[in-house]
Amino acid sequence: MNLKEYLEALRECPDEELKEEMGVYDNWPIFLKSDSKKLLKDFLESGKYKLKEILNLRPDTQLTRLDFVPGTIRLQLFDWIIRDFATGGGCNRNDKEKEHYQRQLENYNMTILLHPYQKNKMNVPDSRALAIVIDDIGQYITKEEIPICLPHSRGYKYSEDYSRIVYYP
Known about the structure:
By secondary structure, the protein is of the alpha+beta class. The chain is built from 5 helices and 7 strands.
């Protein structure tokens, strides 16, 4: 599925079906091929995200936590790919899963994880708040033409339909 189609479907999807149809739930990953410093700068300059903390986990790795200003969503920005969130989590149950897993590890260098962890809540269900932030990041990605993958975009209902994994461009 392409990013534009996914974002349109995400906006149209009823809140109670976001997990089954669109794969939206806690620990929602986005893989990117980008510069983490530029991404952080752009997010902060947009005014939509507020810096919570930056953790230098090792000399060469950094974890940045941001809060979505309207509330609910905490964004974690890792300057590496978290393998466990790639398609199949490395289990490689079949050739398609293995193909997507390898493609994701080879083509991207960063992970964003979205969580509904803020105490300050938007007046929508957590799944809709996640969808709002996914859409916001998707719009930014499109504008900046940043290569991404949404490895969990299939939705629980379509777990065997690998064509629903979103890659951009």
